[in-house]
Amino acid sequence: MRSPRYLAWLAAGAAVAAAIALSGVPAGAMAATPIPTPTPSAAPSPSAEPGAPTTPPNVQLCPPPVPAGTTQGYVGLCWSASTDDVGVTGYEVYRLTATGFVKASSPTGTTTVMGGLAYGQVYTFYIVAKDADGHTSPPTALINARAVTGMVVSPSPVPGDTTPPSKPSGLRDNCVADFPGTAFCWTASTDDVGVTGYAVYRLTSTGWLLVGTRTSPYFMEGNLTTYNKYTYVVVAIDAAGNVSVPSDPITTTALPGFPTPTPSPSPSITPKSTPTPICKVAYTQSTWWTGFSASVSIMNTGSTAISGWTLRFAFPSAGERITQGWSADWSQGTDNLVTASNLAWNANIAPGASVSIGFNASHTGVSDPPGSFSLNGAPCTKA
Predict the structure, then answer these.
(1) Residues 190 and 88 occupy one common structural domain
(2) DSSP code for 62
(3) Which CATH number does the domain housing residue 129 bear?
(4) In degrees to the nearest 10, what's the CA dihedral of 367, 369, 372, 373?
(5) Residue 58: how many CB atoms within 10 A of its CB?
(6) Which of 97, 114, 146 is the last residue of a domain?
(7) Domain that holds residue 223
(8) Apex CA 285: angle with CA 283 and CA 290, to 5°?
(9) For residue 305, how many other CB atoms are within 10 A of its CB?
(10) Rounded Cα gap, residues 119 and 75, in angstroms
């Protein structure tokens, strides 16, 4: 006796065959090519909606039984049924595009065949379950699938640029100092024509939300709950709208940014001390092919002299490395965090006065300026 899943696939194949016959598309056998799928982070997922179905389990590629010779690309997916207290009514399948995830299919069962795709192109999907009360399950992990068609008849190559950028890699957090929220960066993608930008998606309780786009390989998001963990993926996009497969997920903690000091009890005799400095930093940069030179001006905008100072900032990319500095004691560890401390002759900055320092640095393709500065632990404004 045939299994229910086999009969379901026969029905799906018949429906696709009928659609092809009506559109006049010729027929071809189908073959699936396995594509690596990102491994989800071990961090806990966002809390599900109360009463929501369970996440659809066991998602896998299921090459659909499409008639031979079609020139379209197809992706077939199947999964095990979700459970719910009032009953699952169906599923929604979302496909990644250059402008975000779009609904690609709304099956009532646990299989779907999606056509009209570019043969040989890799697409990214996730699936959610819906119940009778309108609740949505947490999303599945992202799954990558190559659109397939006949082994006998292969379509002619699509004209123009159809090659997507490489997968963003090397995601790491804590590469933007003192930002109040989440911040992370990654290694730039490559493309045969050129990467034009990146899209960043955050995992929510019901899907993957587009939370920002960047032209450089770093991202910051504010207005989050401090010390909560958030999971993201990044995709690269080229000028033709080709989208890379998503990066491996990164889970990072939303930090409070600059700490707010707790005042100490006032002693009977208040000791004389230098108050927290008020400062403004002007940063100018001249960039060339493999390096850049920067001039930094630190101005005391307060009413009291600054006696001794340490300036801190972070490069957006870990590939930016200081090679030579002047007018300060410069240091940079193995990461992108930079410290510049006064020398004996420029330790004091009178109110309204400035000191000028600078450095030369190398880069590996990204030479964006720092986003923020702090002096003696307090934030500075940017000129």
Answers:
(1) no
(2) -
(3) 2.60.40.10
(4) 100
(5) 10
(6) 146
(7) 169-253
(8) 145
(9) 14
(10) 10
Q: Which two tokens stand for residue 120?
A: 């040989």
Give me the amino acid identity at 111. Answer: T
Contact 129, 106 (CB under 8 A): no
pTM over 0.90: no
Question: Which of the four pLDDT bands, split at 50, 70 and 90, describes residue 270?
Answer: low
Task: Please report whether residue 272 resides in a domain.
Answer: no
SS3 367: coil
pLDDT band at 222 (very low <50, low <70, confident <90, very high): confident
Which of residues 275 and 26 earns the better pLDDT score? 275
Compute the chain's Rg from CA coordinates. Answer: 27
Alpha carbon 61 to chain centroid distance? 25
Do residues 203 and 322 share a domain?
A: no
How many C-beta atoms surround the C-beta of residue 65 within 10 A? Answer: 18
Encoding tokens for residue 150? 């006949």
Boundary (domain end) residue, out of 146, 177, 192: 146
Per DSSP, the chain holds a count of helices (H) and strands (E) of: 1, 26
Residue 161 lies in a domain: no
* Rounded distance between C-alpha atoms, residue 258 and residue 379, angstroms: 7
Nearest to 70 by CA among 116, 102, 9, 36: 116
For the record, the structure tokens of 167 come out as 């997968």
DSSP string, 92-109: EEEEEETTEEEEEE--SS
Q: Which range has the top average pLDDT, 122-131, 173-182, 264-273?
A: 122-131
Q: Do 18 and 122 fall within a single domain?
A: yes
Do 199 and 105 have their domain in common?
A: no
